[in-house]
Description:
Elements: H1 3-20, E1 29-33, H2 41-54, E2 60-63, H3 69-85, H4 94-114, H5 117-139, H6 146-168, E3 172-175, E4 182-185, E5 190-191, H7 193-203, E6 209-213, E7 216-219, E8 224-226, H8 231-243, E9 247-252, E10 257-258, E11 270-271, E12 273-275, H9 276-284, H10 292-295, E13 299-300, E14 305-306, E15 308-313, E16 322-325, H11 329-332, E17 336-347, H12 354-363, E18 367-369, E19 374-378, H13 382-391, E20 397-407, H14 415-424, E21 432-435, E22 441-446, H15 452-463, E23 469-474, H16 478-493, E24 500-506, E25 510-513, H17 523-530, E26 532-533, H18 536-544, E27 550-555, H19 560-563, H20 566-571, E28 575-578, H21 588-600, E29 605-606, H22 617-626, E30 631-637, H23 640-648, H24 655-664, H25 673-676, H26 679-691, E31 702-703, H27 709-712, H28 716-721, H29 727-739, E32 742-752, E33 760-770, E34 782-789, E35 797-802, H30 806-829
Parallel strand pairs: 1-2, 1-9, 2-6, 3-6, 4-7, 9-15, 12-16, 23-24, 23-27, 27-28, 28-29, 31-33
Antiparallel strand pairs: 4-5, 7-8, 10-11, 13-14, 15-16, 17-19, 17-20, 18-19, 20-22, 21-22, 24-25, 25-26, 30-32, 30-34, 32-33, 34-35
Helix pairs in contact: 3-4, 3-6, 4-5, 5-6, 14-15, 16-30, 23-24
Amino acid sequence: MTTEQLQANAIDEHVDAVTHNQLAKHATQVHKFGGSSLATTQCINRVLDIIRQNCQLNDVVVVSANGDTTDNLFALYQLAKEQRDTALEEQDPRPLEQALNALKQQQELLINDLLNANNARQLTHALKADIEQLTTWLSGNLAAHHNDILAYGELWSARLLSALLNEKVCPSNSIDSRDFLVIDNETHYRVDSAKSAAQLRQRKQFGKLAVITGYICRDEQGHTCTLGRNGSDYSATIVASLVRASNVTLWTDVDGIYSADPRIVPNARKLHRLPNGVAKELGRLGNPVLHAKTLLPLINQTTDHHTHLHVASSFDSEVIGTEIGKFGQIAKQELSVTYLNDLLIAQSECFLGEYCAKACETFSPICSNDKQGFMVINQSQQKALSQWLASHDTEVTFKPVGIIATVGHKVAERGDIKARFKRSLKSTKPLHLVNSDNAHSVIAVLTEPCTTELLNNVHHDMTKDARHIGLVVAGLGNIGQRFLELLPAQLNRVYALENTHLVGLLSSSKALINNDGLDVSQAMTLFEQEAQGYDHEQLLSWLSHHPYDELIVVDITPSEEFSLLYEQFFTQGIHVIGANKWAASSPTAHFNHLKKLSAEHNSLWLGNTTVGAGLPINFAIDDLRQSGDEINQIAGIFSGTLSWLFETYDGSTSFSSLMLDALSQGITEPDPREDLSGRDVQRKLLILARKAGFELSLDDIACQNLVPEPLQGLSTQAFLEQAAALDDFFAQKLQEANEQNACIRYVARLQYDDIAEAKLTAKVSLEVLPATDAFANLTPCDNIFLINSRWYQENPLIIRGPGAGRDVTAGGLHSDLVTICQQLANKQNQVKIKGIN
Ligand SMILES: NC(=O)C1=CN([C@@H]2O[C@H](COP(=O)(O)OP(=O)(O)OC[C@H]3O[C@@H](n4cnc5c(N)ncnc54)[C@H](OP(=O)(O)O)[C@@H]3O)[C@@H](O)[C@H]2O)C=CC1
Ligand SMILES: N[C@@H](CC=O)C(=O)O
């Protein structure tokens, strides 16, 4: 292996390592701005902002000509040509002069609007020289300079942007791509990569952001060439392959690739991630944004280096676009529907058997079939194909057709998708159904043009179940691990979870995020091996660009700090399932703000395990209220820990030993003082009170703290070590209760009395209860909830059962997950297409 290859491999390994975990930062990037993104001073200022926010100095910017400049240069060329072809006495030089003047003024306007006087003077001077050269070419050997003339569009655009960057953003130099980019065959746009890469290295200046002209290059003889239609996109991906960039972003006037043309199919979904092969097939079958040749340089077969491509809108840079690259299974499930009209089906005996392959090689048809002897081609190919067949002495018939195709990774090999596609076409009776050679599409050949209605209906049938849900689990302790253990079976079993993928795992200091999904059966092992340090800024940045239709964060942390992120989650439409009680018991203003945000952004927020673990107490209260009931009393034993401790504690074992036992069983909070202080019960009562419709805060609930003061300020570890200091207090309380034939229980009580002066009273405290009390005879760890309401007055509603522990809590979280996924599925079903034409 050469030194260069070794270096290249080392770079690849490094890039692989940092990009596998998606919270890591990326390497060199190429940003390409299309003509519409650079059309006006306003657009160019937006581009400056995008560069400020997204580029580093070692990145590369590739530009198209500003707005319509290339079209205007081409029109200039045509005018000059017409003039040349006109008899001398009939020639009128004015239209050409006017067009040239208009072009010059357009450039001067941009220069003077954007640059300071000094820089504007320099660029105007250079522009003047260019216009003189243009004038010479237009009146000289026109044909020989066709491409030189067109090249000015990109040249001016790069020069202007680079000058502007120098003035306002960062050091920059503009590079004329003809100084490095060499193609050895203009027709097939084949790039001389070794020569071009070496020449680009020489031109790129260290510490300056390079602004490179798109669209143009040179051939081996040094003539200016263009890269054809959408050549600037192609330039960007070529440059990316030359500098071995990790990513190219095509900043354009659309915000991504959709599952169908969104101008025709209003319910088209944006495809966040497209595998390379599928993107190429979409480009081939008429996607207006992607072009097959743009994607060619993205995979280097020799080094296996993969560059990802993003399509994003320069008009709304915050909107997440589409990423094209190498992905795992989840992205491979994406389906889209595309169509082409104004095609011809050519039928000939010549297409039967081996000649078909030859014809395909020459004409690259949309589709063909060598058993039935047909090819579908563009109308523009009819003449050439007729001639080709005539030279083979064969007859051909042509008929107008359209096509509609379903496109997705290896769809032609998936019986279920093909069957669905056939069903969706049953009213149409296509002429043929053809699998594409690469198997990434199934194409239906239609006798009539594809209509808007057909496209909408087929799109609906093909993509109705296609929304993907990403799942991020925060908190991988006692409950989090059990949740993950149960996850594989749930994903297999529950239909509503069919498109749910585990994509992120977080502890307090480490994160493992993978957009391609994590293997659920090995989640914890993967986390231990691959998780990396992270901060909230990185996490939020990933969350704001996640590639899923919906994202759910399951918060199984005990952290207030993590709960403060809910505000950003909800703002981004992310759903939250919390076992963590902090947010739901936060100060009233904050809690109301979160509720408002989640409603505004359609974020679902469930927290049924925050009280009673898996018991359906939150459901019950919601249900009572929805049925018109009014709750006036909630009481009970809300702490599994305290229930277990007081039901078990009979004096034979010290209270502190029992507490350590409860901790090891996973019943207590990570810091058992959260239970013993009454705070956990206080939070639960607040959560239920809010559910029942009362507006109060923690301070409104009197709370008896059972932790002696000297133990309150210690670290968790120190507290556990000194836990024996609890024992005397509880021994004495137990003895006093025993003397009255009673027992001690930690009880929560909320009472609403609309006649009394203090209408609402709420407290959590240690009570001495008669041995016969309903709260006195629970199975250790059970919770009991007693509710009095209009419907349940004399005879209260009672819910009782285990209120803490790994299984019931993890189970309760899974119940919330299914509920959310079912609701999201219903949301998707609301977009039924009615049929429009
Ligand atoms: N035990 C039970 O029966 C019930 C518990 N709950 C709630 O479940 C939650 C988890 O309890 P449990 O599993 O026992 O706790 P553990 O202490 O066992 O685990 C907590 C996990 O959260 C992580 N974590 C802590 N802070 C953060 C943070 N800021 N960001 C991301 N991750 C963080 C920890 O990471 P690290 O290891 O790095 O510290 C750890 O992985 C608590 O809120 C608890 O109230 C709710 C109902 C019942
Ligand atoms: N520590 C809590 C756990 C559940 O919220 C309890 O004991 O109830």
